Amino acid sequence: MASPPAERYARLQTEEIAAATAAAERLWSRMTVADIDGSWEDVAPQLNRVATTGQNRVGSRVDGNFEEILIATGNRAAATPVARVNPEAMTGWAGDGRPVHTLLNHAPARAKALIAAGFPAFEAMRRSGTFVAKAVATVVGDTARHSESLSMAVRPRVTTYVRMIEPGACSRCAILAGREYRGNQGFERHPACRCTHIPAVEAIEGDPLLDPKAYFDSLSVEDQDRIFTTAGAEAIRAGADPAQVVNVRRGMSTAQPHEARGWRARGRQAPEADGLYTTTEGATSRGRAYEHLATDWDRERVQEVWHFASTPRLMPESIVEMATNRDELIELLTANGYIL
Questions:
Q1: Could you tell me the pTM of the whole model?
Q2: Strand ranges across the sheet with 196-199
Q3: How far is Cα 202 from Cα 75, in angstroms, rounded to an integer?
Q4: Got the DSSP string for 72-140?
Q5: In terms of Cα–Cα distance, which of 40, 2, 6, 46 is closest to 23?
Q6: Count of CB atoms within 10 A of residue 4's CB?
Q7: How confident is the model at residue 4, as a pLDDT?
């Protein structure tokens, strides 16, 4: 079985994501069709606050809980970090590197576009509300996973993680339950995914959160049919391998697109033709990365990058995947303000 601290951690993170999602849905319900732009001016700041508060809460919980999990699973020596994670560095940013508020701004635009396309107003607002709820859930969930990736990165002895699902997980996630990955492998998820990394925990057969078949068997027949489809569930009940029944990669991706991290230069520059930094974090005078960047680039150039760089912000999982050794990893994470 997964350790009690691991199960408690996963449950708390899931509850936090659910709370942020519910708050986002309540805020969207205040939108009015008669004045979409006007009501959005009131709702948008509050919605952004809900998302960033959720990010702060899940991000700040990770490091201490990972230490507890490692100790509880007999990995005390691996629990000591070489640097301290800075959870604030991920607040306000979506998993693909864009600012959260720009992602949320798609909601009113989407509603107006649907209405213009002939959809009934109530349906346009419903669909846009679904987008908002999913966006907030994804943003908060991605922040938790980025923080988990960071917490593993600053613990050199943690070289693998396993995927822990939540009760009620979809079929795509269910068949990945308990799968072990190298620490530098990206975490594939779908929008609103609530799965978590658990460091150096050996998956044990029979745990519903770490074993796909055990998870399937823990569900009622009705839930088996709903999550795996009627035909799929019947095949699994007849003895088929859940992983063979479900298309594992359908709708799954890592948080940041591969094209956003397809260059090297130690992760700090876009293609040499334009020479722009891939991250805009810290490019204001208050950012931790600002002083580091300004040692090689004058402040005017850094500010130019801040305002005009078209490449997404390089996120922690991307840095972890790109770094060629531990020293480079720590250097890049520190330069980008992710660890202190």
A1: 0.77
A2: 180-182, 160-164, 196-199
A3: 11
A4: HTT-GGG---SS-B-GGGGTTB-TTSSBHHHHHTHHHHHHHHHHHTT--HHHHHHHHHHHHHHHHHHHH
A5: 46
A6: 11
A7: 86
Q: Give the other-Cβ count within 10 Å of 233's Cβ.
A: 23
Q: What is the pLDDT of residues 195-214, one digit of tens each?
A: 888 886 555 556 778 888 89
Residue 100 backbone phi and psi in degrees, to 5: -60, -40
At position 267, the amino acid (one-letter code) is G
Which tens digits make up the pLDDT trace of 227-263?
999 988 998 898 888 888 886 556 677 777 555 555 4
Write down the domain spans for the chain. 4-157, 258-335
Give the span between the Cα atoms of 42 and 7, in whole angstroms. 38
List, in sequence order, the alpha helices (H) in the chain: 4-28, 36-72, 100-104, 106-116, 121-153, 171-174, 212-218, 221-228, 230-237, 242-245, 288-294, 299-308, 316-322, 326-335
Query: For residues 229 and 146, what is the distance between their CA atoms, to the nearest angstrom?
Result: 31
**Structure tokens that stand for 121 in this block:** 């107003």
What burial letters (b/e) apply to 263-275, b meaning 16+ CB within 10 Å?
beeebbebeeeee
